[in-house]
């Protein structure tokens, strides 16, 4: 008897985010695997990292945009916490025009900030 599998098809371009509260939970590994799959399929992507540990940059190199704000600047200008994510929003906004998917690796310490940002910009509505 053949095994039946449920496959969910994701339309491209897509926003593919790997976020989690647990440190060392495999978020960067999964994001890297998604980047590999997109690369092998010849599909362009933009990669973003919101984490205090630049592991995704170590894996993918210069292709990764680090969304972290400078801690010293944050002390003087707390609003930078949300504006640091503007490049992510811009990439999502351009995704349908350019056909480029957006990958996001969100570290445990950034979950609350990212959730606030997504709520503020109503990214699910765009």
Name some characteristics of this structure.
alpha/beta; 6 helices; globular
Describe the protein's architecture and organization.
The chain is an alpha/beta fold and about 130 residues long. The protein has six helices and four strands, in the order βαβαβαααβα. It has a four-stranded parallel β-sheet with strand order 1-4-2-3, sandwiched between helices. The chain starts with 14 loop residues before the first strand and ends in a 5-residue tail after the last helix. About 30% of the residues are buried. The model has no long low-confidence stretch (mean pLDDT about 80).
Taking the alpha carbons of the first and last residues, their distance comes to 44 Å
Query: Which bin fits the share of residues in helices?
Result: 40-55%
What is the succession of H and E elements?
A: EHEHEHHHEH
Q: Any idea what the shape is?
A: globular
Summing up helix and strand content along with how strands pair, one would put the structural category as alpha/beta
Q: Return Rg in Å.
A: 16 Å
How many DSSP E strands? Answer: 4
The neighbouring-strand order within the major sheet is 1-4-2-3
How would you characterize the largest beta sheet? 4 strands, parallel
State the low-pLDDT regions, or none. none
Strand content: 15-25%
Can you give the mean pLDDT? 82
Tally of helical segments: 6
Write a brief caption for the model.
The protein is α/β, with parallel strands linked by helices and 126 residues long.
């Amino acid at each position: 008897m053949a095994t039946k599998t449920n496959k969910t098809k994701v339309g491209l371009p897509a926003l593919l985010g790997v976020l989690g509260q647990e440190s060392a939970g495999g978020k960067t590994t999964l994001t890297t695997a998604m980047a590999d799959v997109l690369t092998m399929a010849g599909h362009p992507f933009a990669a973003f990292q919101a984490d205090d540990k630049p592991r995704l940059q170590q894996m993918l190199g210069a292709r990764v945009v680090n969304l972290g704000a400078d801690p010293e600047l944050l002390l003087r200008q707390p609003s930078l916490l949300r504006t640091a994510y503007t490049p992510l929003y811009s990439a999502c906004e351009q995704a349908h025009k350019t056909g480029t998917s957006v990958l996001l690796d969100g570290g445990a310490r950034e979950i609350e900030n990212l959730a606030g940002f997504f709520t503020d910009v109503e990214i699910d509505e765009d």
